[in-house]
UniProtKB/TrEMBL annotation:
<comment type="similarity">
    <text>Belongs to the anti-sigma-factor antagonist family.</text>
</comment>
<dbReference type="InterPro" id="IPR058548">
    <property type="entry name" value="MlaB-like_STAS"/>
</dbReference>
<feature type="domain" description="STAS">
    <location>
        <begin position="1"/>
        <end position="107"/>
    </location>
</feature>
<dbReference type="InterPro" id="IPR002645">
    <property type="entry name" value="STAS_dom"/>
</dbReference>
<dbReference type="GO" id="GO:0043856">
    <property type="term" value="F:anti-sigma factor antagonist activity"/>
</dbReference>
<dbReference type="InterPro" id="IPR003658">
    <property type="entry name" value="Anti-sigma_ant"/>
</dbReference>
<dbReference type="InterPro" id="IPR036513">
    <property type="entry name" value="STAS_dom_sf"/>
</dbReference>
<protein>
    <recommendedName>
        <fullName>Anti-sigma factor antagonist</fullName>
    </recommendedName>
</protein>
<dbReference type="Pfam" id="PF13466">
    <property type="entry name" value="STAS_2"/>
</dbReference>
Amino acid sequence: MYIRGDHVELVVGGRLDVRSAADARTVLHTAVDDGVGDLVLDLSELDSWDATGLGVIMGVHRRAGRCGRRLVLRGVPPQMQRLLVATRLHRILAIEGGIRVESLPGV
């Protein structure tokens, strides 16, 4: 897993899972704490995430809200879009361009 960017926009790539969750959480929380306005997470380079990775995203979403910021997801890969729809988190998280549920196979 890698994260590059600043306190306004970050690109998350690789695997966001139980092995990388602690490092990702630290970087993302620092980005939330050090900035203002929307924090954009570009997930277009993310290969996969597990429940722990999804928990990190939700924790950052909550922390951003407490800091008066908004977490915005960009470039969410289709398989991860399906997970967000299945868990109904697409209704809670801000997703750039939204998710067209009817266009996702298997949902």
